């Protein structure tokens, strides 16, 4: 049964995200996108102009409705070191049915930036800035500066280390999705990074 004639933009973007996430930008055909979104070619072109415009809208949707919500949930609202670890692992831990989500969509997009316009690069930069900001807010909330033996701790540097760890972990999850091994690596890396910082 086809979708109702009323246009549900959020549902279309969600459906297209699943397909782009599983296949990537280049490998997705317009026919597959039409089937995934249950939109006729004319409607797809009317609302999004072309495949790349749809992809950019999907990436923006992902940044706002998935990545930012994970940042808020694990890094901003009552954060703890356990929440930080969950933020990392929630980027690659998914059921077998959606195993294609074993890598942050932002990282997947980064692998295809050479195929996309500068607008995609700007969106990826925006996503990375959101990650960095989330890590800085987490550090400001969790690390107690009065009890630190090292008064010169630079929260920007720690945030950069967390960002590098996050991006490399997501890339590793795409290449070798061994969740147990990734969990151990994340735990050990975070334990090492925060071992000298007394929590608040």
Automatic annotation (TrEMBL):
The keyword Transcription applies. InterPro entries: Homeodomain-like_sf, HTH_TetR, Tet_transcr_reg_TetR-rel_C_sf. Residues 6-66 form the HTH tetR-type domain. One of its GO terms (molecular function) is DNA binding. PROSITE patterns: HTH_TETR_2 (PS50977). Keywords: DNA-binding, Transcription, Transcription regulation. Pfam families: TetR_N (PF00440). This is HTH tetR-type domain-containing protein. The keyword Transcription applies. Residues 29-48 bind DNA.
């Amino acid at each position: 049964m086809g979708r109702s004639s009323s246009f549900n933009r959020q549902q279309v973007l969600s459906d297209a995200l699943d397909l782009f996430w599983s296949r990537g930008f280049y490998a997705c055909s317009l026919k597959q996108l039409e089937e995934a979104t249950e939109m006729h070619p004319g409607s797809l072109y009317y609302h999004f102009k072309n495949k790349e415009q749809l992809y950019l809208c999907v990436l923006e949707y992902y940044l706002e409705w998935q990545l930012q919500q994970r940042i808020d949930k694990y890094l901003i609202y009552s954060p703890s070191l356990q929440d930080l670890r969950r933020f990392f692992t929630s980027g690659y831990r998914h059921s077998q049915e959606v195993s294609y989500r074993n890598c942050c969509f932002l990282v997947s997009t980064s692998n295809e930036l050479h195929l996309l316009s500068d607008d995609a690069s700007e969106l990826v930069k925006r996503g990375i800035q959101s990650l960095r900001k989330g890590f800085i807010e987490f550090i400001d909330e969790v690390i107690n500066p009065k009890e630190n033996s090292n008064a010169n701790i630079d929260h920007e540097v720690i945030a950069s280390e967390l960002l590098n760890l996050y991006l490399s972990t997501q890339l590793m999850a795409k290449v070798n999705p061994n969740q147990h091994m990734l969990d151990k690596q994340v735990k050990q890396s975070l334990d090492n990074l925060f071992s000298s910082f007394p929590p608040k």
